[in-house]
User: Fold TetR/AcrR family transcriptional regulator from Jeotgalibacillus haloalkalitolerans.
Amino acid sequence: MKKDKPKYKLIIDAAVVVIAENGYHHAQVSKIAKQAGVADGTIYLYFKNKEDILISLFEEKMGQFVQKIRKKMADTEDAVEQLKVLVESHFQMLADDHHLAIVTQLELRQSNKDIRMRINKVLKEYLVLVDDVLQNGVETGVLSEDLDIRLARQMVFGTIDEVATSWVINDQKYSITELSPGVHRLLVKGLCK
Amino acid sequence: MKKDKPKYKLIIDAAVVVIAENGYHHAQVSKIAKQAGVADGTIYLYFKNKEDILISLFEEKMGQFVQKIRKKMADTEDAVEQLKVLVESHFQMLADDHHLAIVTQLELRQSNKDIRMRINKVLKEYLVLVDDVLQNGVETGVLSEDLDIRLARQMVFGTIDEVATSWVINDQKYSITELSPGVHRLLVKGLCK
Amino acid sequence: MKKDKPKYKLIIDAAVVVIAENGYHHAQVSKIAKQAGVADGTIYLYFKNKEDILISLFEEKMGQFVQKIRKKMADTEDAVEQLKVLVESHFQMLADDHHLAIVTQLELRQSNKDIRMRINKVLKEYLVLVDDVLQNGVETGVLSEDLDIRLARQMVFGTIDEVATSWVINDQKYSITELSPGVHRLLVKGLCK
Amino acid sequence: MKKDKPKYKLIIDAAVVVIAENGYHHAQVSKIAKQAGVADGTIYLYFKNKEDILISLFEEKMGQFVQKIRKKMADTEDAVEQLKVLVESHFQMLADDHHLAIVTQLELRQSNKDIRMRINKVLKEYLVLVDDVLQNGVETGVLSEDLDIRLARQMVFGTIDEVATSWVINDQKYSITELSPGVHRLLVKGLCK
DNA sequence: TATGAATGAGACTTCATTCAT
DNA sequence: GATGAATGAAGTCTCATTCAT
Assistant:
């Protein structure tokens, strides 16, 4: 399995750094190779093409992420509480890796439609996770019984994503983790009193 | 004033069509010129360069948009009602121009950081509009008194944007305007019952 | 005769200023028109094309120049003295019109081979003038009897031209007219004592 | 060192041929690449941009030239004799490479001011060489003791350059090397007998 | 496995010139 | 005669990918 060879991860991590520091459009394959300490051609022994690096990057990082959250959420069965864990974990992950935060919130979005479609496929796992929480909430009666799950999920994801993006655009200069209680409260209770 | 000359709008509208149909990265200046029915060089009598077309496009369309909403919102002073108008109008605008929807929700986001920064400046006007509604709501007591305006605005915008993007990704095959009551309700009341 | 109409000279003088201030490659027809206070299209009522402006410019200015020198040289029949007048007059003309000096010594030389060939044709008149002086000098016995007229002319012209060009490149910051005695002496006596 | 790789010189020599045969303004990079037998992109592995080719070309060829002359001039200490070597060598170099003669005497002079400034820097070395000869001549008493070195150098260079340019303009149809005694005699003794 | 020199397609922009008014 | 908006051809350079070593 290629993914287990040491250079696979080496190249992906190099890609994160190079994209974060140079921006998506200046992240040439040769720069990634240099950062990883391998020859340009070596990249193509592990990845089909440049797109493949980006998608693998997202798969690798996002996959870990979903697994982590699922584990953490296992501690409770209360959907509201699970949502809290979700928001906290999401923000925590971004806060833990500043480079990755830049890459996922800003740079990777400049990729072309093709790549973005395939990234969305990876994202689906995360969205299913959200759906599960919401579904659970409706079934256990802690969330509104006539909740439109799809819309609700879009609110949850859209809100978390926008808060995260704003934080990155503002150079991550405040603590995003401290925002989770406020975000959680807004999602659960809405704008009204 | 160049913006008042007929070809200015002609070219911008051509750009919307070409970008929507070919994607951001395949929207060559020559294609836009052809679609507008002018010579390549004519573009440069009205725009400094290709970037300038894109930014002007966004300014022109978004500017109109903010003005329209402000006018509609003038009918009521109730923040909750104003929010409803906001969501409805936003979705309506996207539904009214399928090409523009693709361009603003998908294609323009692939532009480089420079352009995106300048697009964000235009977007700010819209965000200020949201802030005004929320501020009004807090002051008149219809919204939660301890609302974090910035977070709340990020929820409102993030949700609307995510709903819109999903709709475009799914080829606009359902009615987005019919979603406004649900979105509005979610924003105001949250996920709980 | 087009050359007698007021706008003909107006445009040529505008061209001198524009080329001197912007350099040959940035001297667009539209700039020349603006400087002359006429419309772009008007240029083409007086000149066949852009080349024609440049060649006419040279003809006009250089023609006057040769006539002036011939007149001044008529005062004496001594070739050595005539050569002195030649050098002095040449330098004086350049000192009198700083813009023209830049144009003839630096900018016009960047024109393509075609234009330069035609400029050389105009220059020929000047070279014939030099030949006449030298021929006269040989015949009257004041110059070396076995002088190779062509080579001698190339030395005279090459020297004057190089001194002038160096002066322009150094921003005309010293007096070129004061150099004429030295140049004259060098040409006549050579480097030896 | 890039300059030592075989393709570096290959491309420079191709540039000389292409510029000589097509003229400066029609010497596209693609033509140079074709002449050199490499891909367009390969050019940019060895040169920063098109300007860089031209400047390198001049540096390379002119650098060799100055070294050659210095070596030849080492045989004698007599300034008059050294001057003879200088003129002969200069003409010999041009006669040896007809393409290069066209490029340096005619085509490269059409380059823009930027390039010409940098070419002048290379040329300076040559001018210093001339200055050294003249200085030596004055100090050893073979040249006029009150010689203005700068003016004298301008006469030497201006004369050589003008003779060379005329020869190239006339399609190199006579032998330029045979002119060196005449030119040398003129420079040393002047026009008088 | 690993290397890295070489490849070559593809698009933005300028500006001399025209011609309907 | 005068205008100036419109035209459209043409060239530099980047960078993902390959393949001989």
